[in-house]
Amino acid sequence: MHWHNGILFCCGTLFTALTLLIPSLPLAARESRPFWTEKTAFVEGDDLFVVGVASKASTAEAGRQQAFEHGKIELMNYAQVTSLEAQGLVIETQMTHEESNSDGTITVYRLLRVPATKLVAIQGRLETKSRAQEQALEKARSELLTIQQSLSEKAQKLDQQQRQVEQLLQQLATRVQGSAFDKTGTPSERPTAAGTLAEKLRQTEAQLDAQEEELEKISKRARARITQEQEAFRKRCKHLVLGMTKEEVTAVMGHPTRTDSDSIVWEYLGITYSVRVLFGTRDTLVMIRHQTGTETVGPPTRDGCP
Q1: Hey, which bits of 211-302 come out as E strands?
Q2: For the chain, which terminus, N or C, has the lower number of CB atoms within 10 Å?
Q3: Over the stretch 77-111, which tens digit does the pLDDT of each residue have?
Q4: End-to-end alpha-carbon separation of the chain, Å?
């Protein structure tokens, strides 16, 4: 009987110890983490550090790769710069921290480092390039507005001259009828006035023809330029596929003319044509929209161009 009670006492003591120990295991894991795992980004000396985290990865290698990609996204969001490698920025791994989970998965923390001075220089170059693009776009829009105003003025002048021609025709018809016969019914000899009006009419018609020809040339040049711009957009955007990452969209379309504050909506603006792309919660392409002026070209497309 005594040995039976002793066994029960030992089992109870062991159960109590395990009950107290098991909740303390995650706490011990947290306490053993490096300080940087609690941060997202920080600057130390001349370097910028960002932390990428991969939770519940199937393997350590997959977790390291996911943590690196998440760290790059964190870095791009922090610096407001897309496609860092394309800008010549080298991202180095400073250290990693790995934790095994009770379900057999692995959580990986990866500390990435980039030179802060080089990152600032890249930001400066991109801002300068963006300002230059905006200035070129504004200049092109101003030139287009000037052409449109000129066409409007010439069209008004043409309309005015057409009304003048109609008035001359009416006056000519009236004078010809009045001068064909005098009051006695005999033919009148007044060819000079009719000849002068006819000559004015021919001159006015020649001027109208020349002005109409010039307007047609201007219109053809404008249509050709607009078509060329639209085709340039289409040659690039036909390669867009839903599910692309931001780096892949940048490789196809180049850097956007402007983005929203969350870098979810990217816009590529031309003078008369624009393309807008939308990224989802996983920073992958979910919608493509084309627009001519203020008019949307077709419904939002899934892949490529409408």
Answers
A1: 258-259, 265-269, 273-279, 285-292, 295-296
A2: N
A3: 887 776 666 577 788 999 999 999 999 999 999 99
A4: 88
Specify whether the CB–CB gap between 204 and 161 falls below 8 A. yes
Q: How far is CA 300 from CA 234, 238, 286, in A?
A: 15, 14, 10
**Comparison of pLDDT for 85 and 292, the residue scoring more:** 292
Top-confidence residue, 180 or 116? 116
- Is pLDDT of 70 > 60? yes
- CA dist., res. 123 & res. 89, Å (int): 11
C-alpha 280/C-alpha 118 separation (Å) is 30
Predicted pLDDT of residue 7: 47
Say if CB 218 and CB 151 are below 8 A apart: yes
Q: Quick count: other Cβ atoms within 10 Å of Cβ 268?
A: 19
- Give me the amino acid identity at 91: I
Write out the two tokens for 55.
């939770």
Tell me the pLDDT tens digit for each residue of 133-147. Answer: 778 778 888 888 888
Please, which residues bridge with residue 284 across strands? 245
| Average pLDDT across the chain, whole number | 78
Q: Residue 72: how many CB atoms within 10 A of its CB?
A: 19
Taking residue 231's Cβ as centre, other Cβ atoms within 10 Å add up to: 11
User: Distance (Å, rounded) from C-alpha 285 to C-alpha 278?
Assistant: 6
Distance CA 236, CA 225 (A): 17
Other Cβ atoms less than 10 A from the Cβ of 52: the count is: 24
